[in-house]
Structures are given as structure tokens and as C-alpha cells.
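PROTEIN DESIGN WORKSHEET
SECTION A - STRUCTURE
LENGTH: 293
C-ALPHA CELLS:
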């Protein structure tokens, strides 16, 4: 790849099978930090038996507070070919996983598509993303991805710049989510409640930023078709030695209640995450032998 334009940063950086430049500094060949069952996603994704989670190395966003900084900031991981990943996906489905989750896979879009051409899992394929996507890249995924699971993180350019060096975050993410919804339509579920098609939007409430959260919820209510579910998360824990003033604490009960009440007033369907999730105990083990099925 002579000039990478997969994400909104549009680095146009050269990438080959073993090395890459630009923002993500990733090669074109896939790097993966974990392939294993995962039980802690939303109920329509994990179900009762789990989702087969593939954690790709790197990230197009790199939030300053990321709890997975080992892979998102420091690119920990191991090289995988499409054939090797295809074999891993088969093992996950043989284990009874109710979906396959491809997590921060954008830098490896072409290799992922090659993988799915080799073997498409008989369970929903989920594209789990920061939301910082290009519409043009998402169109390459149409028909290969069944469910989109995007974050919608920041509303203002100031917060996007402060937390992720991406003042255009909302512009990019809102356009991306519109495209995801266009592709998948309203959610559809199987008999066990697993989402077989659709878009489920996640939002992580940040300390001191309840107003941002409410603006994002209003945008969802005003601009997207009714029935698109939202997962409201209160799991924020300061990680990655975050040094941004105000982000060095967890959210308060009052902040959470303010945002949850706004979601209820807007009559948005979805999920409210419990306070017990605000811990690093749920961070997976990455890049060890036991990290791979």
C-alpha cells in the first residue's frame, strides 16, 4: 500500500507487509493481540455463550485515556495471515461463540475482507470500532459485516482534539454512523436475542463531560431512525497515565444520572451499564500465548 487513506487521518503513508509509517505506524499485514471468547459485550453481541473477539493491534484514534493502550498506543500483537485468521474464526465458532467481533480492524480492512472471502462465519460478524471511520472504507465492508458496534465519543472539536488529537472526530463519526445505519437498517435479532443485523451505538460518559454526552444523545434521537439502540457506559477509569486535567477521576453518580435521565427522556432504546464495570479487572490479557485460541 503506497498511500494509506483508510481512516479520516488520511496519512497517505506507505505500508507494506512488515512495516508502516503515518499515524498508526502499522504494517499492511495484520497484527493481532488477542483471539478468544469474550463475555462482556452488550447482550445482543455476547449472548450467553460469548462473542469470538479478535483484538487487532493499533488504532486510528488512540484516546489518551484508553484502557487497552498496550495495543492501541503501543501496537502489541503478532502477525497473522488471512488464512491463519480464518482458521481461528472457525475454532471460535466451533466453541459455540454467538458472534464474531472484529475490534479496531480498520487499518487491516483489505486483509479482513480477504479473510472473510476465505470463510464467512455462520454467526453475525461485528465491526467494533471507535467510530472514527471513513465512509469510503465502510462501503468496502458492505455485505461482509452484519452488525456495526461504533463508539460515539465526542461532540465538540475541542474534546476531540484534547482526547484524541482529532478535532474532526464528530464530523467523521456522525457520517460513518449514518453509513452504518444505511447499510444495516433497523436491528434484527434471532430467537436467542443476538443481533443478526443492525447498528448499536456505544457512548462512554467522561468525567466533567455530561453536557457532551447529552448533545450526542440528542443527535442520535434527532438524526437517526427511531429504534437504533444505544449502550450508555459508565466504565471510565483513568488509564494510560492520562494527564488531561479532569480526566484523572471516575464519573460521579450525579453525572451518570444526568446522562441516563436524558437518554430516558429521549426514549432511546438500549442498555445502561452498571457501576461495577468501572474497573480494570475487565481488561483482557493481550499478546501472550494464552491470548489466542
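SECTION B - SEQUENCE
RESIDUE ASSIGNMENT:
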Amino acid at each position: 500500500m503506497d498511500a494509506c487513506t483508510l481512516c479520516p487521518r488520511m496519512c497517505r503513508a506507505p505500508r507494506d507487509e512488515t512495516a508502516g509509517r503515518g499515524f498508526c505506524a502499522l504494517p499492511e499485514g495484520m497484527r493481532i493481540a488477542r483471539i478468544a471468547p469474550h463475555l462482556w459485550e452488550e447482550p445482543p453481541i455476547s449472548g450467553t455463550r460469548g462473542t469470538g473477539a479478535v483484538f487487532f493491534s493499533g488504532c486510528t484514534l488512540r484516546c489518551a485515556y484508553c484502557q487497552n493502550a498496550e495495543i492501541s498506543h503501543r501496537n502489541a500483537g503478532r502477525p497473522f495471515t488471512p488464512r491463519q485468521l480464518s482458521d481461528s474464526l472457525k475454532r471460535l465458532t466451533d466453541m459455540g461463540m454467538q458472534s464474531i467481533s472484529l475490534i479496531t480492524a480498520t487499518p487491516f480492512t483489505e486483509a479482513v475482507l480477504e479473510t472473510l472471502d476465505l470463510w464467512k462465519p455462520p454467526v453475525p460478524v461485528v465491526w467494533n470500532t471507535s467510530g472514527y471511520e471513513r465512509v469510503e472504507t465502510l462501503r468496502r465492508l458492505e455485505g461482509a459485516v452484519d452488525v456495526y458496534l461504533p463508539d460515539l465519543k465526542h461532540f465538540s472539536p475541542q474534546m476531540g482534539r484534547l482526547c484524541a488529537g482529532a478535532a474532526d472526530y464528530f464530523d467523521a463519526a456522525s457520517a460513518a454512523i449514518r453509513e452504518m445505519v444505511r447499510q444495516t437498517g433497523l436491528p434484527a435479532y434471532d430467537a436467542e436475542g443476538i443481533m443478526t443485523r443492525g447498528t448499536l451505538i456505544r457512548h462512554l460518559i467522561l468525567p466533567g463531560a455530561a453536557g457532551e454526552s447529552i448533545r450526542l444523545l440528542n443527535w442520535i434521537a434527532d438524526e437517526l431512525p427511531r429504534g437504533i439502540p444505544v449502550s450508555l457506559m459508565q466504565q471510565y477509569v483513568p488509564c494510560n497515565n492520562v494527564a488531561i486535567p479532569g480526566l484523572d477521576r471516575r464519573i460521579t453518580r450525579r453525572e451518570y444520572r444526568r446522562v441516563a435521565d436524558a437518554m430516558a427522556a429521549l426514549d432511546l432504546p438500549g442498555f445502561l451499564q452498571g457501576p461495577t464495570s468501572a474497573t480494570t479487572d475487565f481488561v483482557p490479557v493481550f499478546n501472550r500465548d494464552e491470548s489466542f485460541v
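SECTION C - NOTES
The longest strand covers residues 30-38.
The chain has nine helices and eleven strands.
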